[in-house]
Amino acid sequence: MGELTDKAKGLGNQVAGSVKEQSNDPETRAEGKAQKTKGQAQNLKGEVEGALGDKI
């Protein structure tokens, strides 16, 4: 179940980060890039959990 949760949170952070990257404010753009990276990491964590299944 954690797999789907991590993937959903990751996707949400990627989308929010992409939106923030479109801002005219450099600070907001940097925040968006960080949030997008966090989302990618969460998505990867979900994929790993899914691949390992009940082994973790």
Describe the structure.
The chain has 56 residues and is mostly helical. It is built from two helices and no strands. The relative contact order is 0.23.
Main traits of this protein?
mainly alpha, 2 helices, 56 residues
> Which blocks of ≥5 consecutive residues have pLDDT under 50?
none
Number of strands: 0
Distance N to C terminus? 12 Å
> Largest sheet, described in full?
none
Specify the helix fraction band.
Answer: over 70%
Rg over CA atoms:
13 Å
Number of helices: 2
Helix-strand category: mainly alpha
Please state the overall shape, judged from the principal axes of the Cα atoms. elongated
SSE order: HH
**Averaging pLDDT over every residue, what do you get?**
91
Which strand-content bin applies to the residues? under 5%
